[in-house]
Amino acid sequence: MSTPARTPFVAGNWKMYKTVAETVKYVKEFRARVKDIGGVDIVLAPPFTALHAAAEAARASNVALAAQDLYWQREGAFTGEVSGPMIREAGAEYVIVGHSERRTLFGDTDDAVRQKVGAAFAAGLTPIACIGETLDQRERGDTFEVLDRQIRLGLDGLTSDQLAQLVVAYEPIWAIGTGRTATPEQAGEAHTHIRGRLRQWFGAEPGEACRLLYGGSVKVANIADLIAQTDVDGALVGGASLEVADFCEIVSRCRPAAV
Ligand code: PEP
To answer: Which atom of ligand 1 is nearest to the CA of 171?
Structure first.
């Protein structure tokens, strides 16, 4: 039986940029410009403060919302944290987990990623789980070992159904916000390795269904070559998602040929 094609997935990670007013202005313009782009899952990840306003502005459009992180408890004395059910209520369908900035600046471990991925599913959110190696690790030849560890520990305990729904973002840390993109061959090789491990550890069907995004200095000029790689199903875009025109063009270039 042939595997159904994976729907391309493009998410914009705004990090700590944009006020509520800036968000609403962006979403209104963006939704109008991408309304005829079919066959691509389109997601914006504004800061927590703008999530609800973004969801309202995107209502009844083909644009979905993601939060940039979550905490694994439902509620409690966890000052500064936000839970899965709160994010769901605010109107998001997705949540980014284990972004390298969370790992390096805020101490998120693989075990924290595992708990957050579980909490996201429990709240009815689809996690976008980020993995990737540092430049040192790549230069030492440890890239695949690092990815294996992040997959094994961060995704431990997921069911086949959850794995099939999950989105994984391969984001080499040396390419994030640096302007230095992985070559299409480097991205393709890492994605094929990740897909192989997901098939091996979770089963061929869910491993084949899971969408794999590339992230790291994606821009209009390089998206076509990246998305052309067999196991690259889309992109997690930081800087280039802050401008409506650029992000629309990136989304548009991820459209499947037949749509
Ligand atoms: C990111 O924040 O996930 C990212 C990939 O950033 P940039 O596109 O700016 O490198």
So the answer is: 5
Q: Which of 101, 133, 171, 191 is catalytic?
A: 171
Q: What is the CATH number of the domain that holds 197?
A: 3.20.20.70
When divided into structural domains, the chain yields a total of 1
Residues 52, 99, 101, 191: which is the catalytic one?
99
Which phi and psi (to 5°) does residue 130 adopt? -100, 135
**Pocket lining: 131 vs ligand 1, CB cutoff 6 Å:** no
E strand intervals along the chain: 9-13, 41-45, 63-67, 94-97, 126-131, 167-170, 211-215, 234-237
What residue type is 191 in one-letter code? H
Residue 257 CB contacts under 8 Å (≥ 6 apart), including other chains: none
Non-local CB neighbours of 232 within 8 Å, separated by 6+ positions? 187, 188, 191, 212, 213, 214, 226
Query: Residue 229's domain spans which residues?
Result: 9-253
- Ligand 1 centroid distance, CA of 160 (Å): 29
Residue with tokens 């989304």: 251
112, part of any domain: yes
Pairing outcome for strands 41-45 and 126-131:
unpaired
| 258 belongs to a structural domain | no
Atom from ligand 1 closest to the CA of residue 15: 2
**The token pair that represents 39 in the structure block:** 């066959």
**Catalytic annotation present for 99:** yes
The structure's pTM equals 0.97
pLDDT tens per residue, range 74-121: 999 999 999 999 999 999 999 999 999 999 999 999 999 999 999 999
Establish if 1 belongs to a structural domain. Answer: no
> Helix 244-252 vs helix 220-227: angle between axes, to the nearest 10 degrees?
20
Residues in the chain: 259
